[in-house]
Design brief:
paralog of FGE (formylglycine-generating enzyme); 10 helices; 4-stranded antiparallel sheet; 459 residues; globular; alpha+beta; Gliding motility lipoprotein GldK; 4-stranded mixed sheet
């Protein structure tokens, strides 16, 4: 019987090998993966690869001496055509909040031994509660890995098929009520008869790998370079008060982030670490959808490097002082070209007091809006005054984990024209949030379909 088994196995191997050769005809044809259909990311514009003179080509009026000119080259990438808006960031906050609520409901249901058949909170039990519905792989992972980490519930699938209930009059049972109550501020911290969500509980947790450190180390355990982050991601709305002494800005504090009137305005009050967390979530959100449709994953969304930001802001204009070229900030019709502070004490001379909608003023030649003014923007680069002296001329970037000063670019609604120049450098500390700093994301370019013959264009 044993001989018969191995003979059968050898026959299967032989037939498989022969079949493989017949398909390739003995030629080196490569391993075929999934069919990949590149597509332009929603809300982004393609910035073509190229070289440019980075730095202060014009007089350095501020005498900062931190941006001497240097010719550098950057690869192609996609960039958001506007700053990330309040509406887009709210999508992130709502997703995290809902995930936390679902996790708390599932954990309590698990502790109580309640499943979907029990209705009420049981409808929100972990999907693996009914093991008859699990695949062989899922059963194996549950049996061998559940409870091995710091959190027994880490990685268990939530049931997102059932809608959450936010109307208190429709809560299904007391257990559901208990979980929902834990998400709100206590009664003594409420006023005007309204109970608000405790935003300190809206935390996003994710892992990332420090590939640069791992590559330079040349040895060591892979897990030593995997970092875990967990942080509060709700914008700091108090920046509208703290950034300005002896100034009445309470309406902006009260309404700017959550009210629909400001949905299309750029999000502010987000520090560098929160902007990075948003990029991670956006990648996950897109790839979860890709996975559900059996499509190949997209590469990550991230913050632009300082060089990428300046190259994109220039819009292909050689030696331009501003995204529209320059040298003036007023058009030939007498209108200001961006949202900034044109005159001392006069913030409204450009027809805006604070921020304006993200898609305002004329875009540059790459169809990017507000690359000057409105809000300054976080980049992925650490700030070093002497960086231009030693940076690589190919995709230059300083990504030091020890340097907490991060480059911001573009100037804002409260800045003078100097900070609107495409070559002006500034910085803020990575854990600081401001009422005048936002961000936009980029994604590396990996080709696109050629409509003429269906092939992909070069990278």
């Amino acid at each position: 019987m044993r001989k018969l088994f191995f003979s059968s196995l050898a026959l299967v191997f032989l037939l498989t090998s022969c079949g493989s050769k017949s398909r390739s005809k003995g030629e080196l044809v490569g391993v075929k993966g999934k069919k990949w259909h590149p597509e332009k990311p929603y809300g982004m514009e393609l910035i073509p690869r190229g070289a440019f003179v980075m730095g202060k080509a014009h007089e350095d009026q501020a005498k900062t001496l931190n941006a001497p000119t240097r010719t550098v080259t950057v690869r192609s990438f996609y960039m958001d055509d506007t700053e990330i808006t309040n509406s887009e960031y709210r999508q992130f906050v709502e997703w995290v909040k809902d995930s936390i609520v679902r996790t708390r409901l599932a954990i309590l249901a698990d502790e109580l031994g309640i499943g979907p058949e029990d209705e009420g909170i049981g409808e929100y039990a972990f999907k693996d509660t009914d093991t008859t519905e699990l695949s062989v792989y899922d059963k194996y992972m549950l049996d061998n890995y559940a409870g091995m980490g710091d959190n027994y519930y880490e990685g268990r699938a939530l049931n997102k098929d059932v809608d959450l209930i936010w109307d208190t009059s429709e809560y299904p049972d007391e257990y559901y009520t208990e979980v929902m109550d834990s998400m709100y501020l206590p009664e003594e911290e409420s006023y005007n008869g309204l109970r608000s969500i405790d935003v300190t509980k809206i935390k996003y947790k994710y892992n990332w790998m420090d590939i640069e450190a791992a590559a330079r180390a040349r040895s060591g355990n892979r897990k030593d370079f995997i970092k875990q982050e967990e942080l509060e991601i709700y914008p700091d709305t108090t920046v509208w008060i703290r950034d300005f002494e002896y100034s009445y800005n309470e309406p902006m504090h009260n309404d700017y982030f959550w009210h629909d009137a400001y949905s299309d305005y750029p999000v502010v009050g987000v520090n560098w670490m929160q902007a990075k967390a948003f990029c991670n979530w956006r990648t996950k959100f897109k790839n979860d959808d890709q996975k559900s449709r059996g499509k190949q994953f997209v590469n990550q969304f991230r913050l632009p490097t300082e060089a990428e930001w300046e190259y994109a802001a220039r819009g292909g204009i050689e030696g331009g002082k501003y995204p529209w070229g320059g040298p003036y900030v007023i058009s030939d019709t007498g209108c200001f070209m961006a949202n900034f502070k044109p005159q001392r004490g006069d913030y409204a001379a450009d027809a805006a007091l604070y921020t304006v909608e993200a898609k305002s003023f004329e875009p540059n030649e790459y169809n990017l809006y507000n690359m000057a003014g409105n809000v300054s923007e976080w980049t992925n680069s650490s700030f070093d005054p002497g960086a231009y002296q030693y940076l690589s001329t190919m995709n230059p970037n300083i990504g030091s984990q020890d340097n907490k000063r991060k480059v911001i670019r573009g100037g804002s609604w409260k800045d003078v024209a100097y900070f609107l120049q495409v070559s002006t450098r500034d910085y803020e500390y990575q854990d600081s949030a401001r009422s005048y700093i936002g961000f936009r994301t980029v994604q590396d370019y990996m080709g696109e379909e050629d409509s003429t013959n269906g092939s992909r264009s070069g990278l």
